[in-house]
Design a protein that fits this description.
By secondary structure, this protein is an alpha/beta fold. The protein has helices at 5-16, 53-57, 64-86, 105-121, 131-142, 182-192, 206-214, 242-253, 262-293, 311-323, 333-336, 340-352, and strands spanning 22-27, 33-39, 44-50, 95-101, 126-130, 150-155, 160-167, 170-176, 300-304, 327-329. The strands form two sheets. The chain has a five-stranded mixed β-sheet with strand order 3-2-1-4-5, sandwiched between helices. A five-stranded mixed β-sheet has the order 8-7-6-9-10, with helices on both faces. Helix 5 (131-142) packs across helix 12 (340-352) and helix 6 (182-192) packs antiparallel against helix 9. Belongs to the KAE1 / TsaD family.
Length: 384
């Protein structure tokens, strides 16, 4: 497809200018409708995040059709609110970035359609963003210490993986979950404990509810097994949380604790959180070992994704980073959960390298992160 000169010719001049670039990011991969405008110097000019916790709590989890319908209702107002906060118009922006995948198909389609339309109508460069790359790069906006290559642990409701970030658009996945993600396990154990969801402006849901009550619990009262800890799987870099989640369910079914007892809730939550955190820490330590075997000297450990806001998880991983003599960097908690800022910043990082997309792109539901480099992107900035 021939590139429209109205868009691509100014990109060459845009990338050579010394002024700050301004990128609008749109995120609709799951149930949060988010938009933000970020500059190439890392300034957040405006952001809007519309949560759907009240919509999905009564169903015990995310309902894809409802999530997509609410994105349709919320996204136009989220974009308008973000522009009004920033005092900018679409014409003042340098690019539009939108989550292309992975995620819920119906939710992704809402954001991708909106992002493509805005970019095409206003003749702006379009950047289709990999959701997990956005999580990985978020720490680079907040800290100058995050330099390539770095080791990254991505922990969220949909993903759990360790990866080596070699540079923008190039990642090696070292380990991934064999079953449930850690965020999904947190949510399902919270459901076993019948915990009401936390509805917070900076991120909420079932997982944060479990973390909150676990602070009052004794993790030693219920001894939960650390997954993949006593067999050949202990040497694997992959994760597994389904057994830990099932263990809690069997305990409830056997009457070993009562979800009606606040103390039982707190103690089981604390025990689960302790076991999950140890599992993440052990596999992250193995990832450091693998990086050394690959002769990659990592500069730091980045922990991102929604579960990275969990303080117990952070503490366990800080111990690993300390033993490896590297700094651990986490985005601030509100930027660990899904948000428009991370999409806009990933857009900035990719725009700088000329990694742009045509207006014909579609969403990608399942999208392994290490496939990015093989998708035909070229470092085209110098050719515009």
């Amino acid at each position: 497809m021939r590139r429209p000169r109205a868009v691509w010719t100014p990109v060459r001049r845009l990338l050579s200018t010394a002024r700050e670039l301004r990128v609008l990011g749109i995120e609709t991969s799951c149930d949060d409708t988010a938009a933000a405008i970020v500059t190439s110097s890392g300034r957040i000019l405006a952001e809007t995040n519309v949560h759907q916790h009240a919509v999905h709590e009564q169903h015990g989890g995310i309902v894809p059709g409802l999530a997509a319908n609410h994105h349709l209702m919320n996204l136009p107002l989220a974009v308008r609110s973000t522009l009004e906060q920033s005092g900018l118009r679409i014409d003042d922006l340098d690019a539009i970035a939108v989550t292309r995948g992975p995620g819920l198909p119906a939710s992704l389609s809402v954001g991708v359609s909106a992002g493509k339309t805005l970019a095409a109508v206003h003749a702006k460069p379009l950047v289709g963003v990999h959701h997990m790359e956005a999580h990985a790069l978020m720490a680079r906006m907040e800290s100058a210490h995050v330099r390539f290559p770095f080791l990254c642990l991505l922990v969220s409701g949909g993903h759990t993986l360790t990866l080596l970030a070699h540079q923008v658009n190039e990642y090696s996945v070292l380990g991934s979950t064999l079953d449930d993600s850690v965020g999904e396990a947190f949510d399902k154990v919270a459901r076993e404990l019948r915990l009401p969801w936390v509805d917070a402006q900076d991120g909420g849901g079932a997982g944060p509810a479990l973390e909150r009550i676990a602070r009052q619990g004794d993790p030693r009262r219920f001894a939960l097994p650390v997954p993949m800890d006593k067999s050949a799987s202990a040497r694997l870099l992959d994760f597994s949380f389904s057994g830990l989640k099932a263990h809690v369910r069997r305990m409830r079914e056997a009457g070993q604790f009562s979800p009606a007892s606040p103390q039982d809730q707190a103690d089981v939550a604390a025990a689960f959180q302790h076991a999950a955190s140890r599992h993440l820490a052990k596999k992250t330590a193995l990832a450091f070992k693998r990086a050394r075997e690959m002769q990659v000297e990592v500069t730091c450990l980045v922990v991102s994704g929604g579960v990275a806001s969990n303080l117990a998880v952070r503490a366990a991983l800080e111990d690993v980073a300390r033993r490896e003599a590297v700094e651990m960097v986490c985005p601030q908690p509100r930027l660990c959960t899904d948000n428009g800022v991370m999409i806009a910043w990933a857009g900035v990082e990719r725009l700088r390298l000329g990694l742009l997309d045509p207006y014909t792109i579609d969403f990608i539901q399942r999208w392994p992160l290490d496939e990015l480099k093989r998708m035909g992107y070229e470092r085209r900035a110098s050719s515009f």
